[in-house]
Specification:
The chain has 161 residues and is mainly alpha-helical. Helices cover 75% and strands 0% of the residues. The relative contact order is 0.16.
Length: 161
């Protein structure tokens, strides 16, 4: 597989995982209407990106793999795959974990879109560059939303324990 094919396939998988993480967060926090509705909307953005990447891959004869459906439903991995043991039944801590998880995932996806855009420019691939220019701003908005929510929720959660 070429480097470009690998980058497209990796980003396709990362967007699937980001969509699943937002979807799982919406389900877990359905009582919080803002989190529920925005998480569903943000999951749909990533789902659209997945479809666009699948189209780009098909046009370039790139084989894609599907995301492991259970990965995003598990507890977020935390830094280095480890985290302190804490009460997973506490919804406020769970929301904080979920927001940290989607922020990290969105940051990685954002970097992948940037790398792909640079490759598209170098290769003079207008279709790929246009896709990057459409999708990357969405990913930045996903990351900014998670960041804003973290800044809003974290002080309350951390001070109440």
């Amino acid at each position: 597989m070429s480097r470009l094919a690998t980058a497209i396939a990796d980003l396709h998988l990362a967007e699937q995982e980001l969509a699943a993480a937002f979807g799982a967060m919406a389900q877990r926090h359905s009582e919080d209407h803002e989190v529920f509705h925005l998480s569903r909307d943000l999951a749909e953005w990533s789902a659209r990106h997945v479809d666009e990447l699948a189209h780009l891959a098909s046009d370039r004869d790139i084989a894609l793999i599907g995301a492991d459906a259970d990965r995003a439903d598990d507890a977020p991995a935390g830094v280095g795959g480890r985290r302190a043991v804490r009460d997973r039944d506490d919804p406020s801590l769970r929301l904080l974990d979920d927001l940290r998880d989607v922020h990290r995932r969105a940051a990685g996806v954002s970097l992948d879109w940037e790398v792909l855009a640079q490759a598209a420019q170098t290769l003079r691939d207008g279709e790929l560059l246009a896709a990057c220019q459409r999708a990357h701003p969405d990913t930045l908005r996903q990351m900014r939303w998670a960041d804003a929510m973290l800044k809003s929720v974290a002080p309350q959660v951390m001070a109440s324990g």
